[in-house]
Design brief:
This protein is mainly alpha-helical. It has 7 helices and no strands. The longest helix has 26 residues. The protein is globular, with a radius of gyration of 17 Å.
């Protein structure tokens, strides 16, 4: 049995970890609709945190931490695979979906509205979202277009809540 040098073994572990992060444990490898699939599972994750009464400030902080860490993971993944913004990269959907749920009431209509609005903004790419999608800005552009889509969704939901009550 051939011994693998420690540096090679650590690089394989790091590479596997980065792939797991950017694909959200393989959700990004769905052949069609990987962004929507990841957004669906992300919705469940974020709603579970809300159901467990995790404070909203902590959820916002966690979303921001995942944004930064996920961006660096995207950078490492893209460098290794020599790709850019591949469909398998879905950590950005995870973040965008989290942002879209920041100000919801914890009931099904709001959850569905957050999901639909985020997916619409992510797919249609209105101004702001489109800018970051077009001007990739390396791994930050991959992440930030979904952050903006999530912000659009959360702003609309927050405005609706202020208006309706």
């Amino acid at each position: 049995m051939k011994k693998v040098p420690m540096a090679v073994a650590l690089e394989k572990i790091r590479s596997s970890l980065m792939t797991g992060i950017v694909t959200c444990c393989g959700l990004g490898f769905f052949p069609k609709g990987s962004g929507t699939i990841a957004s669906f599972f992300a919705t469940g994750f974020w709603v579970l945190l809300l159901e467990l009464d995790v404070p909203r400030w902590f959820i916002i902080l966690l979303t921001l931490l995942i944004t930064v860490f996920g961006t660096f993971a995207i950078q490492a993944y893209e460098k290794r695979t020599k790709t850019h913004d591949g469909s398998e990269i879905v950590i950005d959907e995870w973040v965008g979906m989290g942002i879209s749920l920041w100000f919801i009431k914890l009931n099904l209509p709001y959850i569905i509205a957050a999901f639909v609005l985020f997916r619409l903004f992510d797919i249609w790419k209105p101004p702001g979202v489109k800018y970051f999608d077009d001007h990739h800005l390396n791994s930050w552009g991959v992440m930030i277009d979904d952050v903006v889509a999530g912000l659009y969704a959360t702003i609309l939901i927050g405005a609706y809540r202020l208006w309706v009550g």
